[in-house]
Amino acid sequence: MSIKIPVFEEIVLKDFNENSLRTLIGESRVGKVPCYINLIGHSKAELEGFIITLELILLEYNIHPEFPYPLYVISLIPLKSICPWVRTLKDLPDHYFKRVKRPNNKELQILNKLSLKVDKVKNLELYKIINELNTSALSQKELFLKTKELYFLEFLNSKLFPKPKK
C-alpha cells in the first residue's frame, strides 16, 4: 500500500466537456489529497458553466470540496461556489506545498492513521452534516440574541427599580 503525503496536485483540464470532466474527477485523487484547478484566462460565462458542472459531478461522486482535503479553484474572477476560491497560485495554503521526503517509521504510522481517518471522513454524509450544523448554528445564534436582549432588559430593570434592602 502506497501512502501519499498530502501535497497539492493540480487537476489539468483539457476542455470543459462534462463527460471528460466526470472521468477526470473520477480518476483523480480529489478528496484524498489537496487539489486545485487553475482556471485563469477563462471568461466569466465559461467559468459559471464549469462551476455548475463541477459541483454536480462532486455531488454525484459524493466528494465534498473542503473535507477531508480541499479542492481549490483558482480564478481571477470571483466565483460563487461550494469550492474554495483563490485568486492566484500563491494564495493557496503553504503547508500543502512542503517538499516530499521519505517518511521515517513514526511518520509512516501517522500517515497510516491519517489515511484511515480520511477514508472515514469520506464515508460520512458531509453535505447533510454541514447542513445540520448550519441549521443548529442559526437556532443557537437566535437563542443567544434573545437571551442577550433578556439580560439587557433585566439589567435595566434592576437599575431602574432596585430591590429594597431588608
Task: Give an overview in words.
This protein has a domain at 9-101. Helix content is 49%, strand content 7%. The termini are far apart. It has helices at 18-27, 44-60, 105-123, 126-160; strands at residues 9-10, 35-38, 71-74, 85-86. Strands 1-2-3-4 form a four-stranded parallel beta sheet, with no helix packed on it. α1 (18-27) links the parallel β1 and β2 (35-38). The protein is built from four helices and four strands. The mean pLDDT is 87. α1 (18-27) crosses α2. It is of the alpha/beta class and 166 residues long.
Quick recap:
The protein has helices at residues 18-27, 44-60, 105-123, 126-160, and strands at 9-10, 35-38, 71-74, 85-86.
Features:
alpha/beta
Mean pLDDT: 87
Rg, nearest Å? 23 Å
**What percentage of the residues does DSSP assign to strands (E)?**
5-15%
> pLDDT under 50 segments (min length 5)?
none
Alpha plus pi helix count? 4
Order of helices and strands: EHEHEEHH
Count of strand segments: 4
Largest sheet: 4 strands, parallel
State the helicity in percent bands.
40-55%
Main structural class: alpha/beta
Global geometry: elongated
Strand order of the largest sheet: 1-2-3-4
Q: Termini separation (Å)?
A: 78 Å
List the helices and strands and how they pair.
Elements lengths: L8 E2 L7 H10 L7 E4 L5 H17 L10 E4 L10 E2 L18 H19 L2 H35 L6
Parallel strand pairs: 1-2, 2-3, 3-4
Helix pairs in contact: 1-2
